[in-house]
Design a protein that fits this description.
Oligomer: single chain
CATH topology of the largest domain: Rossmann fold
Helix content: 25-40%
CATH superfamily of the largest domain: NAD(P)-binding Rossmann-like Domain
Distance between the termini: 13 Å
Order of helices and strands: EHEEHEHEEHEEEHEHEEH
Shape: elongated
Length: 243
């Protein structure tokens, strides 16, 4: 009997949840719990971590999970690693619904860096106006470069003081459009963008706006995860479930 655990928190996960619900699949949607007001889903929802690999294995067995769909953010690497290890230990089938990474096109001025430290170094010593489009989890990595002026775009208002002395937060939830992002960059006199190579359409507008304005982008490459089966579309995942 098929029972699915959908690891979510992304636009693709929301679409996957709708596809599972419409098909009448017995499934549970799991949120990490980092967003204060997550989008409502058409499936039963659980919120919070599992307690590492051991906790995930225990959950899979207790809930009778037969299939796991990892539709987490491409930078939620720890959860993806745990999913690979936990599903193997529990004998549960696993597939990742993963976005294609963004690829530079004509007119793009991208600098690829392997991690957050590389992004900090790429900004240089001279003060700059930076659109720091990386979410709230990794802001402290830039505390070592306090000379820059940072614009942050966050889903939820910060509840604690920001770890950056010169920072302003805009509260907004994607998807975003090019016209809005172009205006945002111009209004805040942004000189460079720092972003994670998340892929997908929901956050791509800032890259198109940067191209139009001739702005450089520091793009953080995706972290490595163990080898696993990967799907690019909902149809591929549904066919896998039926197989």
């Amino acid at each position: 009997m098929t029972r699915v655990l959908l690891l979510g928190g992304t636009t693709e996960a929301g679409r996957m949840a709708r596809a599972l619900a419409d098909a009448g699949v017995d499934a549970v949607y799991s949120y990490a719990g980092r967003t204060e007001a997550p989008v409502a889903q058409p499936l039963p929802v659980r919120v919070g971590g599992f307690g590492g690999v051991a906790g995930l294995v225990a959950y899979l067995r207790a809930e009778g999970i037969s299939h796991v769909i990892d539709a987490t953010h491409p930078f939620a690497a720890q959860m993806s690693r745990n999913a690979v290890e936990g599903c193997a230990a529990a004998g549960v089938a696993l597939i990742a619904l993963e976005r294609e990474p963004w690829q530079a096109g004509e007119g793009d001025r991208w600098t690829h860096v392997p991690d957050l430290a590389g992004a900090v170094a790429a900004l240089g010593e001279a003060p700059r106006w930076v659109f720091l489009a990386i979410g709230r989890q990794n802001l402290s990595a830039f505390a070592g470069a306090p000379q820059h002026h940072y614009l942050l775009r966050l889903v939820d208002p910060p509840t604690d003081p920001l770890p950056l002395p010169r920072a302003e937060a805009v509260i907004a939830r994607g998807p975003f459009d090019v016209a809005g992002d172009r205006a945002l960059l111009k209004d805040h006199r942004i000189e460079v963008i720092v972003a994670k190579n998340a892929g997908g359409a929901g956050a791509e507008a800032k890259l198109v706006a940067a191209r139009e304005l001739g702005l450089p982008v520091v793009l953080i490459d995706r972290p490595l995860v163990p080898e696993r089966r990967v799907a690019r579309t909902l149809g591929e995942v549904m066919a896998w479930l039926d197989g």
